[in-house]
# Entry
Amino acid sequence: MVWCWKHSDNRLEEAQCTDGGPGASSQSHFPHKAFWFTLSACLLLVIIALGLTGHLWQSQPHSQSSQIVRITVPDQTGVLINQSAVVDQQNDLVTFSVTSPANQTSTVLFDIKHGLICYKPVEQESCFLRKMEKSDYDNVLSLLQDSTHKQSQFHLSGNETQRQTEFLGVLAASQVDVSTLEVPLQTLCQDRSVHWTRKAEGPGKQRLVYFCIDICFPSNICVSVCFYYLPE
# Structure
């Protein structure tokens, strides 16, 4: 800062003035430097915040994209059957947990992307695999569409429910290498052997049905899937 003297009414007065030196120049540029520094810092903070948000979104578990749907329906004797389905739209998977009147739970996995159904009965040491058909797609897609509307509870009426029975013959000699299956199927059956099954009209009089799994869908359709073993 430079102080000057000027004449005013025959008196000397003290006044502030500049001499155009480097000190004055640096003062005139200081506000501009502060503005750009502040702007750069704000942009950097915004970039960091966006990066953290994207990382947290990507690191969220897939389970958050899943929805649990519960279905209650009376069986033919009037006893309520409770089952739940985990709908994973991101991976095109629907996993049913079917609880029998004896309070035993079997698992049925619909892998829509690869067109496979895997059955894991509670009292068996094996998993059973078959390819999906059009009726399977129709049934499970109705569940996917209903879950899109965030409906999580279904109470089916026994009088209005269509009941169907499917027979699957187990090909005991056609054991599947679990390591060749997709990850969801490997996870489900990691402690069991896996066998292909073949859909049939019925087991015939010489065949014995070993067990059945009842699966119900929001479209008022219940399918009783019954298994029997074919000769090797």
The chain has a mean pLDDT of 77. The two ends are 104 Å apart (CA to CA). Residues 164 and 223 are 5 Å apart (CA to CA). The longest helix spans residues 22-59.
